[in-house]
Write a structure and sequence with these properties.
With about 190 residues, this protein is mainly alpha-helical. It has a domain at about 15-135: Calponin-like domain (Actin-binding Protein, T-fimbrin, domain 1), CATH 1.10.418.10. The chain is built from 8 helices and no strands. The protein has helices at about 10-20, 25-40, 50-55, 60-70, 85-100, 110-115, 120-135, 155-160. This is Transgelin.
Length: about 190
């Protein structure tokens, strides 16, 4: 766990402090409330870093969450508190999050949660999963996922656009260079 690591110093301590400063208690609180609603269990939804870590560190709540969103996502949830079993739960959650559509750039590494290295990335991952939950008929959090707005143009419409001069090419109206005297001397 986090207590087994050596204390960071110098640049490493500064980098870790910067990572930890990005943690937002309000976002963590919203995520914990959403998880409690989905799994239908009472949780301590206090958004403080210590509580957020304590609620999620063993990965069982995370596995229950993905199983509620899509049944059978995690086949076996380990209830043991042994380190490798807890990390296996977290890995199973991350694999299920990928299949549910959470992009890899919004996911966290197992050590980010287990060793409390970057809890902000855990919040980001859960927010992303919250946006995907509405695709599976569950209440979501955050902004609604965007949908495609495919447009089909006829050949006639496409040909008509060829004759339009884009404003990016410039214009023959408005500002011009009259009055600019390149090469002329200043008359006094």
């Amino acid at each position: 766990m986090a207590t087994s690591r050596a204390t960071k110093s110098g640049f490493a301590a500064e980098a870790q402090a910067k990572i930890m400063s990005k943690y937002n208690e309000q976002h963590a609180h919203e995520v914990l409330e959403w998880i409690a609603e989905i799994i239908n269990k009472p949780l301590n939804t206090n958004g403080e870093m210590d509580n957020f870590y304590d609620v999620l560190k063993d990965g069982t709540i995370l596995c229950e969450l993905v199983n509620e969103i899509k049944a059978g996502s995690v086949k076996k949830i380990n209830t043991s508190t042994m380190a490798f079993k807890c990390m296996e739960n977290i890995n199973n959650f991350l694999a299920s999050a990928t299949t549910l559509g959470v992009p890899s750039q919004e996911q966290f590494q197992t050590v980010d949660l287990w060793e409390r290295q970057n809890l902000n990335s855990v919040v980001i991952c859960l927010q992303s999963l919250g946006r995907k939950a509405s695709n599976f008929g569950k209440p979501g959090i955050g902004p609604k996922e965007s949908t495609k707005n495919v447009r089909n143009f006829s050949e006639e419409q496409l040909k008509a656009s060829d004759s339009v001069i884009s404003l990016q090419y410039g214009s023959n109206k408005g500002a011009n260079q009259s009055g600019i005297n390149f090469g002329n001397t200043r008359h006094m």
